[in-house]
Amino acid sequence: MADEVKPEVKPEVKANDSIDLRGVMCPTNFVKTKLKLESMEKGQVLEVLLDTGEPIQNVPKSVKEEGHKIVEVNREGDHFKIKIEVSE
Amino acid sequence: MDHFVEDKGKSVIVELEGESEKINFDDLKSGGFIKQKQKDLFTVRLRCPGGSMPTDKLVEISKIAKKYSKTGEVHFSFRQSLEILHVDYNDFGKIVEEIKGVGWQVASCGPRVRVPTACGGCSYNPNGLTDTQGMANMVDEKYFGNPTHHKFKMSFSGCPIDCARTNEMDLGFQGVISPEWKEPLCTGCTICAEVCKEDAIVADPDTGKPIFDEKKCIYCADCIRACPTEAWVEKRKGHLVRIGGKHGRHPVNGSMVAIFIPDEKVPEVIERTIEWYREKGKRGERIATTLSRVGLDDYKKFMGSTFEGYEVPDHLEGIIWQTK
Predict the structure, then answer these.
(1) Which residues on chain B are in Cβ contact (under 8 Å) with A56?
(2) Distance (Å) from the alpha carbon of B188 to chain A's nearest alpha carbon
(3) Mean pLDDT, rounded, for B240-269
(4) Are the Cβ atoms of A61 and B195 closer than 8 angstroms?
(5) Is A26 designated active site?
(6) What is the pLDDT of residues B156-167, one digit of tens each?
(7) Would an 8 Å CB–CB cutoff place B198 in contact with chain A?
């Protein structure tokens, strides 16, 4: 495509903090993510490790609904590493 | 099933709107009074479209219920109404007046359009795709109490989880959104393939980008909600229309007759459907019976232009009834 719009998301966004939620069930994983995000400053990036299945199905949707931006997603075997930019 | 007043022909003297009146038990059903097994006692069913009520009204209604219920009890009906139990028929006039006084209304039973039911919908449920509460209020305001051959129940579900059981309504409306993929915005993160519970989206093993098979899609829009880069967008949004479902002693699954019906077209669907039912139905038969007697094709033909452009794709019936 000639006028292809390049996605804004660039790989390897630097994270300010991280939280490993592998093995943590829904909705606790979201609540923990939310609490962490609330302790951070606007524009900072949180790295979250989430299992495949329900956690990756639910947490990104909820994070988006809270108004934050998911800036990077990488699958690493049986889990995902997502990076979230704090909106407020 | 609703309780029907069994003592047909029997009547009682009741004080209504300040005057003593002879009331037939059969007439009471139309006013939302349902005879109980206990002598002289009735259940008073309130009109609660979508099962919602502001808390200040609930407080006032509670006071009325406490005053008139002989056992101090209410029951949440299967159609989301609040029912005040064990009310003496001699109190009908007073209780109706007090309910009106706090700005609320009594429901109805019998052969007419009932109070519509609805889930939370898009106003607060994250899964909700359509404004089910708004639609239920609109339908209640416009069509409640309209006479039909038998009871006529409608409901609104906001998504394919179908909590409002549109499949077992005389006429049901379930929220649907079809997704469209915008390749330039896609980063190949594979979240959409992970969230798709229907395996309609699989990630390309090389690029991570989605391969979409619409023949497996039930239009829940999870992909749109989950996509971090808005690469999945809404293509069509509206209601999946089901007709002729019912529960009861002989339950019937509804038939899907139209999809992506927009909000503003819902009144037309209801009006035309009731018109067909009145014309083709017989007194005392549910629309499910009329449909099985006259034929679904006759109904679809009658609906004609109303459903034109809103045809249900062939694949949907098969995948919805899959056991998962």
Answers:
(1) 191, 194-195
(2) 9
(3) 97
(4) yes
(5) yes
(6) 999 999 999 999
(7) no
A73, B187: Cβ pair inside 8 Å?
yes
Q: Is the minimum CB–CB distance between A52 and chain B shorter than 8 Å?
A: yes
Name beta bridge partners: B229: none
CATH number of A17-85: 3.30.110.40
pLDDT in tens, B61-86: 999 999 999 999 999 999 999 999 99
Contacts of B131 (CB under 8 A, 6+ apart): B121, B122, B123, B263
Class of the B117-320 domain?
alpha beta
Domain boundaries, chain A: 17-85
Half-sphere exposure of B301 (CA within 13 A, CB side): 7
CATH code at B11-101: 3.90.480.20
Residues in chain B within 8 Å Cβ distance of A52: 194
B92-101 helix and B55-68 helix, angle to the nearest 10 degrees:
160
d(CA B107, CA B120): 21
In chain B, what are the domain boundaries?
A: 11-101, 117-320
